[in-house]
Request: fold
Amino acid sequence: MSYSKDDIDYISKKKPSFPINKSLRGYLRAFSREIKLPVSYTDLTRYSNAFPLYNEKGQDTLWESAMYPAEFMQEIHMGLKKIYAILRTDGDLSLLDHLIVDRIDYCTFGNSNPFRIRIVNQFNDNYDYYYIKKADASRIYGLELEHILSPNRIHFFVDQNTLVEDHIAGIPGDTFIQHYLQRKRTNKVRIAKEFVKFNERCFVRLLGDMRSYNYVIDITPDFDNEQYRIRSIDFDQQTYEGKRTLYLPQYFKENNKVVEFCRTLLDANTIKQYQLEEQTLIGKRLASSTVKYEKLMTVMKNDKISSSEKTKKLASDLSKYHKEARFLSLDSMGKILDMHLKKIVS
Reply:
């Protein structure tokens, strides 16, 4: 992986939301992703007041804490605790008595305008989060592909136009680059290795817009140092953009410092080794989930999750990259993804 200042000055600022079609909803039901939820996204939009949420440094987080009318509050909180029980214990409601909904935050930016639910255990004050968002087909494909092809398991549920997602823990990428990257304890070679592998994962499954604030770094203490896992937290740009480079985190200026680490600490042969390792792992995951993947692709190939212009552009870019003319005949992002992925891992 070599750094390039390829022209990526354009990226969609506001991606349109794509509806869940009948086929995708059937897939979600077949794999227990669609269930009846006690609270919908629309329910949460009925707050009566909101105030800005600041971090410990007094900076505006661009999140707001929502307040609800008293007659509505108890019903909302009970429903949110039930959703948490569905996420954590497959719906076992026995844990609800000692849990409280401490805060309901609303995000004022981004495509999905999520609500973030903070759940607190009254016995020990431990807290946890999950999110309620507007359901978008692009994001659902991204979440499901992450679950199938990445080393990470993803918990999410859909009910009509409501999407519930588990919280993905980790240090935001921009925060890590600013405050952790130059720590003496940080193992810079391991960070460089993980970024190469993350870069490859995103490209193989065509997940776009992985600027530093759209992923987190999970740090795991090891007996001799630390291990790192980079995880996406934003799946809205799953096979949406037309430029091939927008699916490679290495090309975003927000990731420049990490890319420089890769250039300095890793030679071309080592980078190639890590890319091949990741391709092999993705191939093994695909082999172990072939039925599920093929059912998802059957739906995705016939779904419209981008514009015709972007679809043609990506088909052209990948035709040149793979030196494969068959890409030019593909008329959907699902078909492009399937051919691209199998060209790399098979």
